[in-house]
TrEMBL record:
This protein's name: dTDP-4-amino-4,6-dideoxygalactose transaminase
UniProt cross-references to PANTHER family, sorted A to Z: PROTEIN RV3402C (PTHR30244:SF9), TRANSAMINASE (PTHR30244)
Molecular function as annotated in GO: pyridoxal phosphate binding; transaminase activity
Family annotation (Gene3D superfamilies): Type I PLP-dependent aspartate aminotransferase-like (Major domain)
Modified residues (N6-(pyridoxal phosphate)lysine): K182
Family of the protein in this entry: Belongs to the DegT/DnrJ/EryC1 family.
Source organism (scientific name): Pseudoalteromonas denitrificans DSM 6059
Xref: CDD domains: AHBA_syn
InterPro entries on file: DegT/StrS_aminotransferase, PyrdxlP-dep_Trfase, PyrdxlP-dep_Trfase_major
Keywords: Pyridoxal phosphate
Active site location: K182
């Protein structure tokens, strides 16, 4: 495909090799090695957060967060997300109940939570969809009033700010994915940012089999550690993060300039939170209906332009996750969504070309 939907960012090989040579010299490959410690520190500084714990991937980040916060029973969550949001709950023996989303932001809409759901749930797991900040203040107030933990699946929210600080500073825990296709990556990897130091300390023990200082399994833990090889990739990518973010944001802005002119009956763009700034993580568009999405995706593929129905299907329609919750808005969005190519070496000329093709297929004059 000439324009794939994503291309993992590959940093300078020589710099990566330097880190790997150091790892070979030390022969310290995992178990909280010096590169993991360095990446943890650098990421916390870069993002402006405290209590950041690196883990092996974004799915384990969610599961460790549930365990560290002692989440039990029912969790209210969004159906418009990636499979891991719901599967991590079910895998952990929790009951996922789906709350419908806002039609503009695509994020969980707290106004759709019923009194009965508030009274019976132990936590809300919301997603900053495509990096777009949730109504974090409203959710914080709800959590405080009803003694519910607020967790953010912030897999897309690297570098996403809200009121001039990282959106990762909101919630009892916020989890990140550093999968190869993400804006910032470590090949595979993830992180959890905890509000409280005690939860962070607990999670640090949980990701290493629950071992105490004497290697005695004091808690029921798991292996969720990041390796030195993965941290080496993270450190190398982090050196270029300002360039990556600037480049992707410019591309997203160009997509918006091109597509904003199309009438909203044919195509809609995600409404970003007014107190946030787009982080350039994804480029989603909503088409008129499902048949338009299927047709456009096919037509673009014939022109060597990759797209992805991300997220489809709506998680509330997946039998394996229990299907609890009436979510017509999320179901509708999931049927009409399409993500467009976005990666660091895509050019503004490429974006114009892709948008011209979309306009042509929609029969819109430029
Ligand atoms: C919203 C969301 N949550 C969780 C994950 C899981 O992250 P990982 O692939 O690092 O396990 C992803 C991955 O793309 C995601 O998009």
């Amino acid at each position: 495909m000439k324009y794939p939907i994503v291309k993992p960012y590959l940093p300078c090989l020589e710099k990566y090799q330097n880190y790997i040579s150091d790892v070979f010299e030390r022969n310290w490959l995992t178990n909280n090695g010096p590169l993991v410690q360095k990446l943890e520190k650098r990421l916390a500084e870069y993002l402006g957060v405290e209590h950041l714990l690196l883990v092996a991937n974004g799915t384990l980040a969610l599961q460790v967060a549930y365990a560290a916060l002692g989440i039990k029973g029912k969790v209210l969550t969004t159906p418009f997300s990636f499979a891991a949001t719901a599967s991590s709950l079910v895998w952990h023996g929790l009951q996922a109940e789906f709350i419908d989303v806002d039609a503009g932001s695509f994020n969980l809409n707290a106004d759709n939570i019923s009194t009965e759901q508030i009274d019976t749930a132990s936590a809300i797991l919301a997603v900053h969809v495509f990096g777009n900040p949730c109504e974090v203040e409203k959710l914080a107030a709800l959590g405080a009033e009803h003694d519910m933990k607020i967790i953010y699946d912030a897999a897309h929210a690297f570098g996403s700010n809200f009121n001039d600080q990282s959106v990762l500073n909101y919630g009892d825990a916020a989890t990140l994915s550093f999968h190869a296709t993400k804006l910032f990556h470590s090949t595979e990897g993830g992180a959890i940012i905890f509000k409280n130091k005690a939860d962070y300390d607990n999670a640090r023990q949980l990701i290493n089999f629950g071992f105490d200082k004497n290697n005695h399994p004091e808690l029921v833990g798991i292996n969720a550690k990041m390796s030195e090889m993965h941290a080496a990739m993270g450190l190398t990518v982090l050196e270029n993060i300002d360039h990556i973010t600037a480049q992707r944001s410019e591309l997203v802005n160009r997509y918006h300039q091109n597509l904003e002119t199309i009438t909203c009956e044919l195509l809609q763009l995600q409404h970003w939170h007014v107190a946030g700034v787009r982080n350039g993580a994804y480029m989603p568009v909503l088409f008129k209906d499902e048949s338009s999405v299927l047709l456009i995706a096919d037509q673009l593929a014939n022109e060597d332009i990759g797209t992805r129905r991300y997220f489809h299907p709506s998680l509330s329609q997946v039998e394996a996750y229990g299907m609890k919750g009436d979510t017509p808005i999320a179901n509708d969005i999931a049927s009409r969504i399409l993500c467009l190519p976005l990666y660091t070496d895509l050019t503004l000329v490429d974006v114009d070309y892709i948008c011209d093709k979309i306009k042509f297929f929609l029969d819109v004059r430029s």
